[in-house]
Design brief:
With 139 residues, this protein is α/β, with parallel strands linked by helices. It has seven helices and five strands; from the N terminus they run E-H-H-E-H-H-E-H-H-E-E-H. Strands 3-2-1-4-5 form a five-stranded parallel β-sheet, with helices on both faces.
Length: 139
């Protein structure tokens, strides 16, 4: 049996689902469903979770934010970010440091793909960066 594909989720893909973004919801929700059913192994950055908590708590309530994050943690693993991750991220020529940290966290957890709708933000890429629709076609 082949090893499960490891996928690192950019925050925008998760927000597509949680905010039911019309153009992107269906594909992104299919990817999270693949993680939920075990077809892929999904990862998320710890700082994405803190951002999600903030956004949900602000828009709805802290209690709702806790429930949603607890549910998300049932299907995605939190990627480790340590000093090495940050140091490696500092060496990437990305405009957005958060993207650099996400990329190096994806590398450290040995993700096969980083899935995002903003592929250009992750160039150059030491691992494959892919749109949600492209990843759905692979799984």
């Amino acid at each position: 049996m082949a090893a499960k594909i490891k996928v690192f989720f950019d925050l925008n893909v998760i927000l597509d689902v949680l905010q039911k973004r019309e153009r992107f919801y269906e594909t992104s929700s299919q990817l999270l469903a693949c993680a939920e059913t075990g077809r892929i192994q999904g990862f998320v950055a710890p700082h994405s979770l803190t951002t999600l908590y903030y956004l949900i708590a602000k828009d709805q309530s802290p209690a709702k934010a806790r429930v949603m994050l607890t549910s998300l943690l049932q299907i995605l693993s939190v990627a480790a970010i340590d000093q090495s991750t940050i140091e490696q991220a500092l060496n990437l020529p990305y405009r957005d440091f958060e993207d650099a940290v996400q990329m190096m966290a994806a590398v450290q957890c040995k993700a096969d793909y980083l899935v995002t709708r903003n592929v250009r933000d992750f160039e150059p890429a030491p691992i494959s960066v892919i749109q949600p629709s492209e990843l759905i076609a692979l799984v």
